[in-house]
Amino acid sequence: MTTARMPMKSSSFQPSPNMMGRLRCATPTRRRSGRWYPEERRRGQGNHIGPLCLPLLQRPVKRSLELHMRVPQATAVLVSVDGTHHPDGRFPISCDDLGLSRGHGVFETLPVYDSHPSSLDAHLQRLEQSCVLMGIPAPMPAVLRTRIRGLLEASSCSHGVLRIQVTQEGRQILAVRPLGRRLDTLRARRLAWPTPPFPPARAKHTSRAGYTLAPAAHDVDEVIRTTPTGHALEGTWSSVFCFRGGTLYTCPDDGRILPGITRGHVLFLADQMTISVKEEAPGPPEPNDSWFLTSSLQGIVGIHRLDDTDQPPMPEPIRALRIALDQHTGRPTAPSA
To answer: Residue 11: inside a domain, yes or no?
Structure first.
């Protein structure tokens, strides 16, 4: 069944300031070939596009997105939906489920080493907190653990990636896929991107299209959100650290960022290794800074180019911290690809 698209009633559409990319269509729309087009696009004048979207539209979108998939997004080898396994990764879902139609859901992604999900307790605790923040029925921990164990036992991936997703309707979708390549260093760009009021930043929600498009739009591996004054908050898929003058800086868990699981491990290990830490959003880059990112799948990954400026190699304290983190999380010792 097709759904007719209705024209805008107003002759001037003004989105809220928080809309991703600040896309603005300033003229009425007309129907052409079954679609509604802005008058200015019909005349070939183009739309007014904000700084987030403009770079993406200046190059082929598909090629741009493929360029930045450095970690292969392999097809899930096994999926479980509410406890039922689907080996081909396909399963039915209602079009009324807001997790599908509106991205109203929460998720966790964590590595699996030797068929054991790393930091599972911490991820399940954050999943429950995300459900509360998003108004989603939280799954029963015992039932969810049983389903995770059954999925991993049925999977052929001893080293893989486990994704746990809960939709607004309460459906539990689990998926296991092969573990992708680990990065040693990457390119990043800082972008003024204040924390929006909704969805809550402390919830790991599934409304992440903007986070997916941003790195591709700016031709980097990661985009670091900053305040208007240039203080780093977090990445689109990572937590951000800056080692400056012998002190490790990172944004505090004050409601502006997602409290990363690996971020917590790094803070704990830094304290054990007597590395000075300040939970304070690092300001604009300075000479001799060492910036790095953390995530559950990547661990610690350095930044070799930030805002078109080459960065120094990772210093010895951070290299030692990276090794300690790998040991702490159970990552197998293997050379990076």
So the answer is: no
pLDDT at 75: 54
Asked if 278 and 214 sit in the same domain, the reply is yes
Q: Which residues pair with 223 in a beta bridge?
A: 189
**Alpha-carbon gap, residue 171 to 93, rounded angstroms:** 9
Q: Are 323 and 192 members of one domain?
A: yes
Domain that holds residue 94: 78-178
- What pLDDT score was predicted for residue 76? 53
Return the C-alpha torsion angle 248, 250, 254, 255, nearest 10. Answer: -160
- Within a domain: 6: no
Read off the pTM.
Answer: 0.78
- Which spans in the chain are helix H? 39-42, 54-57, 61-67, 98-101, 120-134, 141-154, 209-217, 261-272, 316-329
Are 204 and 165 contained in the same domain? Answer: no
pLDDT in tens, 78-116: 999 999 999 888 888 888 888 888 889 999 999 999 999
Query: How far apart are the C-alpha atoms of 262 and 249, rounded to whole Å?
Result: 15
Q: Which of 36-40, 125-129, 202-206 has the lowest mean pLDDT?
A: 36-40
Pair 251, 232: CB distance under 8 Å? yes
d(CA 337, CA 335): 6
Kindly report the backbone phi and psi dihedral angles of residue 146, in degrees, each rounded to the nearest multiple of 5, phi listed first: -65, -40
CA-based R_g, the chain, Å: 21
281 and 168 in a single domain? The answer is no
